[in-house]
Write a structure and sequence with these properties.
Elements lengths: L6 H15 L6 H24 L9 E9 L4 E7 L1 H4 L1 H15 L8 H20 L3 H10 L1 H11 L5 H33 L12 H6 L4 H18 L8 H8 L2 H9 L2 H13 L1 H6 L1 H20 L4 H21 L3 H32 L10 H4 L1 H14 L6 H16 L1 H26 L6 H4 L6 H19 L2 H20 L9 H12 L1
Antiparallel strand pairs: 1-2
Helix pairs in contact: 1-2, 1-5, 2-4, 2-5, 4-5, 4-12, 4-17, 5-6, 5-7, 6-8, 7-8, 8-10, 8-11, 10-13, 11-16, 12-17, 15-16, 15-21, 16-17, 16-20, 16-21, 17-19, 17-20, 17-23, 17-24, 19-21, 19-23, 20-21, 20-23
Length: about 525
């Protein structure tokens, strides 16, 4: 679906332009208001885009194509399908919440802070829209500069610069295998078309999906892309940057990192479709890695005494659940995985923002320094409890629908994986209820807890919006699942059949496929 009005370019470039214009405001108050207005307008555009999206097809829509670097055949190519469409309004919504939550907490260099937030929103939108691998990699790497400065300049911990450097080095290291995988895809296209580089190079997503890839090269490309995306997801053992950033970085930025799992999106969008046969071969590796992350994150979260650190390991556990859904290679599992990715923004990002309100009031989120918060801040406690219940998959919440689909998909793929997924869900309930009891219940012992002020109007608005979205998508999950159904069915068909031009299936695989189709 091609359109004359470049609405995707507007989504990508509007925050970038606004971030430059914000330096023209002499008043910091006007700069904050302008940033919030732009983010709200960005959310409106994203909602209009989603409203006009046709969920009855698996094709890319709102496609924009323009020559960019002709010598390398890199294009300015944007487009979305049902997998990426729902993440555009989610990204805009989270940024609105972060700007509103940062309203009274940023006192130095506020114009630079909000400009960097808008630039980060711009490149994040580009990550979800880019369909040229060169353009995607540019947006991917451009997330680093704003995040480095946001963490190092406005972090709340004494080691915030160390956290910023640690995150940046991890992401730069992860970009190396990602770039190598993309280059191999482009070189393979040159080989298949019998045209020498650079004439035969192609970074076009559509072209590369139709280019046959030998099975041996598929394995190399799959492992390279998986490694590159695993760093940002994050998957074990590349997860160590997340607890550090959660403790040292600004709350709003950590909420963005927890809410928008770009690494998992990259696995679904690029790693698996480009290497369908390799994905089948390494499905057990993915499932085992997912099970380990889910159980490891949950067990470590159970031992934490700080809310922010507990939420960081909780996020790692939920990343493992998403990977289990992806590895199940059935419609229930992958739809649950995509839905859970969507829920991260509302639940994980939202609960971390609410924890930030505690940090701002009390100067700490350590459970030993809290206790009795429910007595003095009932509104904040209720919002945290509601989002926490969604995080552990209580019926009626958006987390229930996602986890239910992932568990069904896991059991359909392997009973042992399904049991491990259930165990991770049980542990999730254990660590949240333990942390909630220690931090919010009981009598208030500290004076600052006794005198703490409950949610202010702006904060209450954020909490209410998060709670309403949790209920809305929990009671009506099909409102999200409808968008991803068609593209995920095509995604699965590609995995089940393999690429039509790759190596022929053995007789055993042919008989197995015939039996599966008969079933």
């Amino acid at each position: 679906m091609n359109i004359s009005f470049p609405i995707l370019s507007l989504l990508v470039l509007l925050p970038l332009a606004a971030g430059i214009l914000i330096f023209g405001f002499r008043s910091e108050r006007l700069a904050r208001q302008f940033a919030l207005f732009v983010s709200l307008f960005e959310l409106l555009i994203a909602c209009i885009l989603l409203f006009n999206f046709q969920s009855s097809t698996a094709d890319m829509q709102f496609v924009e194509r323009m020559e960019w670097i002709p010598t390398l055949h890199i294009q300015y190519l944007l487009g979305i399908d049902g997998i990426s469409a729902v993440f555009l309004p989610l990204t805009a919504f989270i940024n609105v919440c972060v700007i509103a939550a940062s309203w009274n907490t940023i006192h130095s260099l506020s114009r630079l802070y909000f400009a960097l937030l808008l630039w980060l929103e711009s490149v994040t939108m580009g990550v979800f829209c880019a369909l040229d691998l060169g353009l995607f990699f540019l947006f991917w790497e451009l997330t680093l500069p704003p995040l480095y400065f946001l963490i190092s300049l406005w972090g709340i911990g004494p080691q915030r610069r160390h956290a910023a450097m640690k995150y940046t080095l991890f992401m730069l290291a992860g970009g190396v295998p990602l770039m190598l995988g993309f280059i191999l895809l482009a070189l393979n296209n040159a080989r298949e078309t019998s045209m020498p580089p650079p004439m035969g190079l192609s970074f076009d997503y559509f072209t590369l999906l139709e280019t046959p890839i030998p099975l041996e090269m598929q394995s190399t490309i799959f492992l390279l892309l998986l490694l590159g995306f695993a760093v940002k997801a994050p998957l074990f053992p590349f997860h160590v940057w997340l607890p550090t950033v959660a403790m040292q970085g600004p709350v709003g930025i950590t909420a963005l990192l927890m809410g928008l799992k770009l690494g998992l999106y990259g696995i679904i969008r690029f790693a698996i479709p480009f290497a369908p046969q390799a994905t089948q071969h390494y499905a057990r590796l993915l499932a085992g890695l997912g099970v380990f992350c889910a159980l490891y994150g949950a067990l470590i979260a159970l031992k934490q005494t700080n809310l922010r650190r507990m939420l960081a390991f909780s996020s790692i556990s939920h990343v493992g659940l998403v990977l289990i859904g992806i590895a199940s290679i059935n419609i229930q599992g992958i739809q649950g995985a995509v839905f859970q990715l969507f829920n991260f923004g509302i639940v994980a990002g939202g609960i971390f923002l609410l924890t930030g309100f505690l940090q701002h009031r009390l100067g700490s989120t350590d459970m030993t320094a809290l206790g009795g918060v429910a007595r003095t801040m009932p509104l904040l406690t209720s919002a945290v409890f509601m989002l926490g219940l969604a995080g552990i998959g209580i019926p009626g919440s958006n987390g229930f629908a996602a986890e239910h689909l992932i568990i069904i998909g896991a059991f359909k793929s392997h009973a042992g994986v399904g049991l491990a997924t259930l165990m991770a869900a049980v542990l999730g309930a254990a660590y949240f209820l333990k942390a909630f009891r220690g931090a919010f219940l009981g009598p208030p012992l500290r004076r600052d807890v006794k005198e703490a002020v409950d949610l202010r109007p702006r904060e209450l608005c954020i909490a209410v919006c998060l709670a309403l979205l949790t209920l809305a998508f929990g009671l009506f999950p099909q409102s999200v699942l409808t968008y991803s159904q068609k593209p995920l069915q095509a995604w699965l068909a590609r995995l089940e059949a393999g690429h039509p031009s790759t190596l022929a299936m053995t007789e055993k695989n042919q008989l197995r496929l015939t039996f599966d189709l008969w079933k």
